[in-house]
Amino acid sequence: MRILRSPRWRRRLVKITVPIVIAVPLIVLGIHYSNPGNPGNATGPNVAETGYYTVPKKAPFTAAEQRAVHRTLKRFIISAVARHDVPLSWDVSGPDLRQGYTRKQWTATGIPVVPYPAAKHGLGQWDYVEYSFKNDVGLEVFLFPQPGSGYSAMTADAEVVKGHDGKWRVNYWMPKKFHGPPAIAAATKRRVHRAIAHTRHRKRPSHATQTHTTTAVAQPATLEQHRQSRLWWAVPLGVLGLLIIVPAGVATTIWVRNRRAEREYLRSRA
Prior knowledge:
By secondary structure, the protein is an alpha+beta fold. It has 7 helices and 4 strands. A hairpin with a 5-residue loop joins strand 3 and strand 4 (168-179). The chain starts with a helix and ends with a helix.
């Protein structure tokens, strides 16, 4: 072949063939031993997962379970939320709520429950059931404050779980929303009612004084209103005048200049 006889072409073929011979095996090995990543995951190759979270199946919240949960919530609110007997709340608190605490720390230091001066009215009841699974219920609990505490009624989210021993425990508790005015003391209520009654029965001024005061005050207000109304009309009228006068002035100036230029042109040709 004439190409192989030419030294120039032989050098060119060597330069082309050597990179191809080196690159092709490397590409084959890279494809064979590599593990491509997931297109939806930019962090790297696929990793085998050991387990998956499965959504628990819904289960009915029976009457017997409701009674047991009601008792647990009542004990928990009295002991942990209202802080009447903190050590007792350890037995009715779930594993997630007690995580990181020992029984000694639970009684000696602060507990992960927001305090609230709950009243005994409706204690342990809930507004509605947020979810109900087997051995796990989510509730929205409504609490009333003690009289004179300065707190409003409160709604809290609670999760109550059933342990292997068959006992229900509060596994999650978090205040959600406050409702209505705060509960004030009875003495404060009486002072407020007396002040309101005193204001309502206070002696009113005579009719003549009311008429004189109204006339003296209404006249300046009326004059001021007239001044404002005139000023209000002056502004749009001024703007409208500018919109008409300015274009008319510009058009007149252009017309005068054109007429002057035309006369000068005719005079130069005469």
